[in-house]
Amino acid sequence: MSLLEITNLTARYASAAGDVLKGINVSVEEGEIVTLLGANGAGKSTTLRSISGLVPFTSGTITLNGQSLLGQGVEAIARLGVSHVPEGRRVFPGLTVTENIMLGASNRKGVSRAEMMREVDEKFDLVPDLIRLKDALGWTLSGGQLQMVAVARGLMAKPRVLLLDEPSLGLAPLIVQQVFKIVAEIRKRGTTVLLVEQNANVALSVADRGYVLETGRVLVSGKPKDLWNDPQVRAAYLGGHAIA
Ligand SMILES: Nc1ncnc2c1ncn2[C@@H]1O[C@H](COP(=O)(O)OP(=O)(O)O)[C@@H](O)[C@H]1O
Ligand SMILES: [Mg+2]
């Protein structure tokens, strides 16, 4: 049994006609980094929102560790072990880095202040660039720093699976490399990651497996090397270069 199993998932927005997701099958094994790739509008974010309960899915199943997420609220799903780092980071501008990170634990009961501070320190150990910024307000941070705070906050929920939506968006290539180094380290420390990206190159460099979505369907899935060498995928998403 996979840690996260999505079968025949369809989903739609109340405000729009028709299904946005048209029967998606995705599985994530414990300890993996799996990436969802695809062009803007393919349904990547909607898939993550369906998992975390932000968009109710209309049919299909989603299970975490064998337990159905159907009909569970956002908070219940978070407690079961899903943490969603949304597109756009959503760091509070008027709170400090430490305060923003601590907010990620708000769904957990009975965590002492001392324990909380120890866990925040663990996050600074994971992202050393944030230590000197721990008292800086959100609005003063760069895009890369905001992304790192958002990831650290997501980890404070102690998730079984971390959902990351386009962490590379709008960041300079060097900063993207730093963010993905952290993603690899997160997995090394034991958290499973489902990573949504438009930047296929970097995503496939850290992922164990990937899925390419196109207009609400899985076009193709496989190991990074298979995706790299799939002519259809290569032409559409990978800039045309094959690897041996
Ligand atoms: N809140 C919304 N209301 C209505 N339609 C939406 C909403 N969010 C996304 N969509 C539509 O759903 C489709 C998939 O969007 P999305 O999951 O955000 O794609 P991606 O993350 O792959 O760029 C798009 O056609 C988009 O226009
Ligand atoms: Mg998106």
What CATH calls the topology of the domain at 4-87 and 158-237 is Rossmann fold
Secondary structure tally, helices: 9
Query: Which regions are unreliable across 5 or more consecutive residues at pLDDT < 50?
Result: 240-244
Largest sheet: 6 strands, mixed
Radius of gyration: 18 Å
Second CATH tier, the architecture of the domain at 4-87 and 158-237: 3-Layer(aba) Sandwich
Full CATH superfamily name of the domain at 4-87 and 158-237: P-loop containing nucleotide triphosphate hydrolases
Mean pLDDT: 92
Cross-sheet strand order for the largest sheet: 6-7-8-3-9-10
| Number of DSSP E strands | 10
Beginning-to-end CA distance, first to last residue = 32 Å
The sequence of SSEs as H and E is EEEHEEHEHHHEHEHEEHH
Shape: globular
Helix content: 25-40%
Attached small molecules = adenosine-5'-diphosphate, magnesium ion
Structural class: alpha/beta
Strand percentage, roughly?
Answer: 15-25%
Task: Report the CATH C-level class of the domain at 4-87 and 158-237.
Answer: Alpha Beta
Explain what you see:
This protein has helices at residues 44-52, 74-80, 97-103, 113-126, 143-155, 173-188, 200-206, 224-228, 231-237; strands at residues 4-11, 21-28, 33-37, 57-64, 67-68, 82-85, 161-165, 192-197, 209-214, 217-222. It is of the alpha/beta class and 244 residues long. The chain has a domain at 4-87 and 158-237: Rossmann fold. It has a six-stranded mixed β-sheet, with helices on both faces. Strands 2-1-4-5 form a four-stranded antiparallel β-sheet, covered by helices on one side. α6 (173-188) links the parallel β7 (161-165) and β8 (192-197). Residues 240-244 have low confidence and may be disordered. Residues 13, 15-16, 20, 38, 40-46 line the site of adenosine-5'-diphosphate. Magnesium ion binds at residues 44-45, 87, 165-166.
